[in-house]
Amino acid sequence: MTEQLKRTIENLNKNNMETFLVESRDEALKTALSLLNDGDTVSVGGSVTLSEIGLLEALKCGNYNYLDRYAASSPSEMHEIFRKSFFADAYFTSSNAVTENGELFNCDGNANRVAALMYGPKKAIVIVGKNKIVKNLDEALYRLKTVAAPLNAKRLNKETYCAKTGHCVTMDNGKEKDLTCGCRSKDRICRNYTVMGEHLPDRVKVIIVNEDLGY
Ligand code: SF4
């Protein structure tokens, strides 16, 4: 284990987030499923990582009451799933970044994911590849504005500056130190920023995968 991983895991644990280090996406899937019970109501936040490890398929096929946002047939049905997710037994998501200080850094356009991560579901299970570990919050924000937001905006066909250029408009406005001001696009995906250190012991589990996953 590298010193960086060791420090990150120690600090996540100190922040009440029990952390597992696994070597591969297959192992991540097994660990994630081992944290569920038959019949659990489960839900997920939007995440490439969850898809890459095969979790979405496993939830569909397993013995769970899966609140499947991807099966929603209308925006109102999707909204209803988001609301029901607050009462789930387990909520799965990734994180835009994890700092060596043991913080989960995230940013959402809609806030359903960050809200459920922070409060509501009995358990929140966060799965992150090692590529998302950063030194501190400055690096987390920089990662968001140069990696996570541009790639997610492109994936979701959003009309934003970063989807076209690969970085946030603020960086071309000479406002690198003021990255949260962002663009004025109606499609902007950086609206709700959160930094999390859990207060309830046993609620949040973090699975760090020793490979690159998602963005
Ligand atoms: S504020 Fe706008 S341009 Fe900047 S990263 Fe977010 S969506 Fe992209």
Question: Any overview of this molecule?
Answer:
With 215 residues, this protein is an alpha/beta fold. It folds into 2 domains: 3-134 and 192-209, NagB/RpiA/CoA transferase-like (Rossmann fold); 137-181, no CATH class. It is built from 9 helices and 10 strands. The strands form 2 sheets. It has a 6-stranded parallel beta sheet with strand order 1-10-7-4-2-3, with helices on both faces. A hairpin with a 4-residue loop joins β5 and β6. The longest helix is centred in the C-terminal third of the chain and has 19 residues, at 137-155. It starts with a helix and ends in a 6-residue tail after the last strand. The mean pLDDT is 95. Iron/sulfur cluster is lined by residues 145, 149, 153, 160-162, 168-169, 182-183, 185, 188-190.
